[in-house]
Amino acid sequence: MTRRLKWLGLAVLAFALASLLSLWSYGRFARQAQGAPGHALPVAANATALDRLVAPLLAARPGESGLALLPDNLDAFAVRALSARAAGRSLDLQYYIWHDDFTGRLLDHELLRAADRGVRVRLLLDDLNAHGRNSILAALDAHPNIEVRMFNPTRNRKGGIARALEMLLRMVSVNRRMHNKAWIADGRIAVVGGRNIGDEYFSAATDTNFIDLDALVVGRAVRQAEAIFDEFWNGNAAIPLQALKQAKPGAVERLRAQMAEADRRLHDHAYIRRLRASTGIAEFVRGVRPLYWPRHLEVLSDPASKGQGGGEPRWLVHPLAAAMSQARGSLQLVSPYFVPGERGIEFLRQLRARGVAVDVLTNSLAATDVLAVHSGYAPYRKRLLEAGVALHEQKPGGVQDSSLFGSSGASLHTKAFLVDDDTGFIGSFNIDPRSISLNTEMGLLFRDREATAALLAVYRDKTDPRHAYRLRLEDGALRWDDAATQPPTSWEHDPESAAWQRAAVWLLGWLPIESQL
Fold this sequence. Notes:
The chain is of the alpha+beta class. The protein is about 40% helix and about 20% strand. The protein has helices at about 1-35, 50-60, 75-85, 100-115, 135-140, 160-170, 170-175, 220-235, 250-265, 270-275, 280-285, 315-325, 340-355, 370-375, 380-385, 435-440, 450-460, 500-510; strands at about 65-70, 90-95, 120-125, 145-150, 180-185, 190-195, 210, 215-220, 240, 295-300, 330-335, 355-365, 390-395, 410, 415-420, 425, 440-445, 470-475, 475-480, 490.
């Protein structure tokens, strides 16, 4: 036994030394690979189409910010594609995920077209999900008007065992990810919220699509989004892709040829028809979409240094918790990944003790796309109900917006909250340990009764019995009520879930992983 313990101790020591060496080596590489500082370009009165569209609105409301909600997935895609087409100066884009799929490729092509027109494109992506796109990203990066940077990347770009080993040795630093989502065109329009780039975020997936929410903003808030982007772009964790992977000769030309072929092949595709039928980005700014002008609107983010464990006083959780703690009558929370923890339970319990009505919408087991997160949430359900919190869980039924592909499933991905019908938040922040202390997050915090009423209407639709179960306790046992059926149905276990899913959640619940969820 002593001999085995000795060898185990030596193995642990060897791993610790290898990990320290890996962290030191990566830190040295990152410092040497740091890109040149970059900053948002100044706006002008009428230099671009977006200048000419937005400047008159802001002239009538100097110093203010306008806000439009984007609950529909097709609208969310269109506003990105159309703003890229209208851009004449800059595109600054920051995402956790950009899939190499149908909609991801369409937006790749919009970036290339914009760059060919002379638009400066800066693309900042979290590296965790980017490895399947190395070649495409390298081709874009090879364009003289496009620069790609990766947040907290691995040096190994080929995947497999070598990358897994690097991630294992750098586990402490690799565990921190950039979860921000921002699309900024010409410094005039910004889209901030919960959506990444991929088919499931834009109702183009054939199996399950996400129910999500973004906001389009104009005015002073766009400059705030640009300042956040610049902080991350120039941060120590952002590494130019060129230092990691370079494109093969002719890569840009091949990408243009692929784009031209796709244009011919997809000429009559429903997504392309949707864009052709649009009157342009103007319809989102001053057309059929209501544009609210909140008395207070602020784009907030974790500091870029959170990606390396720093900047705790500036973490996003602090202003968000402060806003929620101001509730006097009601608090509605929407979080697809909801793991409140002991502090969260106590926070909500104190609100209930003050007479605040607290409602929560999250995913059901059948609707979630991450079983591990559900295992972190499930143990808190009884205590939340006992505290008087109203719990709703998203049904796994088909998408609830204008899906073009006949998807049969839906999963909640919206992150938002409302306080007293007066304050609202839309962003990337989940109520879970990862958003609080590991990932960087961002979003919009606003105070305005009209805008909040619009957000409340979205919340009420998503918690309607057609779309969500209502949980309750019966003799101490959980029950899921489905008031949309005739007669109403009550479930004694997670509705529409398979036995293997329930077993997996039970097993995962025994693991000490809550802090990572």
